[in-house]
Amino acid sequence: MAYRVLGRAGPAQPRRARRLLFAFTLSLSCTYLCYSLLCCCDDLGQSRLLGAPRCLRGPGAGGQKLLQESRPCDPSGPTPGEPGAPSAPAAGAPSPRLAGANHSGSPKLGTKRLPQALIVGVKKGGTRAVLEFIRVHPDVRALGTEPHFFDRNYGRGLDWYRSLMPRTLESQITLEKTPSYFVTQEAPRRIFNMSRDTKLIVVVRNPVTRAISDYTQTLSKKPDIPTFEGLSFRNRTLGLVDVSWNAIRIGMYALHLESWLRYFPLAQIHFVSGERLITDPAGEMGRVQDFLGIKRLITDKHFYFNKTKGFPCLKKTESSLLPRCLGKSKGRTHVQIDPEVIDQLREFYRPYNIKFYETVGQDFRWE
Fold first, then answer.
1. CA distances from 322 to 35, 129, 315, 330, 351 (A)
2. Cβ neighbours around 121 below 10 Å, total
3. 128 belongs to an annotated ligand binding site
4. Residue 149 near residue 159 (C-beta atoms within 8 A)
5. What is the C-alpha to C-alpha distance for residues 327 and 315, in angstroms, rounded to an integer?
6. What does residue 274 show for φ and ψ, rounded to 5 degrees?
7. What is the secondary structure of 146-173 as a DSSP string?
8. How many CB atoms lie within 10 A of CB 203?
9. Residue 126 φ/ψ region, left for φ over 0, alpha for ψ in the -120 to 50 degree band, beta for the rest
10. CA angle, corner 359, sides to 354 and 364, nearest 5?
11. Looking at residue 12, what is its pLDDT?
12. Cα-flanking dihedrals φ and ψ of residue 360, to 5°?
């Protein structure tokens, strides 16, 4: 009897098993389909279900821009708030794309500012040396070329002038050098209109030696110019000096200084001795640093004396593999001048020198 019952039930079991297997397979397929609809994305980087979070397969699906706004389609990756997930930026924090970006005006690069200090003169006094020496200081950024803004290019405007400047941080000083400013009548007023707080540096030198150096430079470019003696005097016999010649006129320091003192107090003008710049560069640059209000970092260890040029040069630094001297036009051998001509010019400059010493409170010992 039992055998017959088992015999009748046997054929029904495989059918039930097949139905269960079919139901299980159908359920699994539906589950997989739902999972795919919820988590996978189309080529535009958007979910096929409205309201589902956006996700990306990679950089090509929707572009790099969306990568920072979307989560990858990786169910194994942590979601915000879970351990191991990147924390959300605090309120007011900069975007990750902008943090540390090197864009215009970035604090890391600084900004272009109008100069707070100017080397305004004088030509052939040692202005290039002062510029190159002070540029060693980390708190100073200087324009390498002479922009001639306050004498030749004033019509271009302050925005043009600012665009030439190097980028500086808040803690740094912007500096530029144009030695012809000192003898330009309009320059003091124009600089004052830019900023009455501008610090002014004037590098002066024995006016006779300066004039000879000026002539030597011009002669190297124009070999056919008249002699130094011929240009210096309207009548040498009578001792009449030609003050219209620029090489002579520049050395009348007291005359030019009057124009500057109409706009700037003497405390805002620092005078560097061109002679002491050669014999004691560290001492002169120490006083320049004091005037600019920066720490004395440029010291004796930065200089060595170049016997060939007869001028101090900068020693090699961590950022420079070689020592740095001024160009070939600096330290050029002067033309030989008749000693009597030199004596006549010394007498001519004597009253201007004395007045200059009295005005600035320094004896430069040029007599």
1. 68, 17, 8, 18, 45
2. 27
3. yes
4. no
5. 15
6. -65, -30
7. ---TTTT-GGG-HHHHHHHSPEE-TTSE
8. 28
9. left
10. 50
11. 53
12. -90, -10
Burial of 221 (0-12, 13-18, 19+ CB in 10 A): exposed
331 is in an annotated binding site: yes
Q: Is 177 helix (H, G, I), strand (E, B) or coil?
A: strand
Tokens 């007011």 belong to residue? 92
Q: Is 125 annotated as a binding residue?
A: yes
What CA–CA distance (Å, rounded) separates 349 from 147?
Answer: 30
Q: What pLDDT was estimated at residue 219?
A: 96
Q: Are 219 and 335 in contact (CB under 8 A)?
A: yes
- The segments of the chain whose pLDDT lies below 70 read 1-18, 20-107, 316-324, 326-332
Tokens of 242: 């030609």
Q: Is 122 left (phi over 0), alpha (psi -120 to 50) or beta?
A: beta
CA distance 251 to 195: 27
Residue 350 marked as a ligand binder: no
Comparing C-alpha atoms, which of 281, 228, 263 is closest to residue 120? 263
263 C-beta neighbours (distance < 10 Å), count: 17
- Name the phi and psi angles at 31, rounded to 5: -60, -45
Considering 108, 123, 124, 355, which one is annotated as catalytic?
124
Check whether 124 is labelled as a binding-site residue: yes
Q: What is the DSSP letter of 324?
A: B
Q: Which residues partner with 168 through β-bridges?
A: 111
Beta bridge partners of 233: 241
Ramachandran angles phi, psi of 61, nearest 5°: -95, 85
Residues near 261 by beta carbon (within 8 Å), at least 6 away in sequence: 359
Distance CA 356, CA 364 (A): 9
Give the model's pLDDT for residue 257. Answer: 98
The reply to whether 124 belongs to the active site is yes
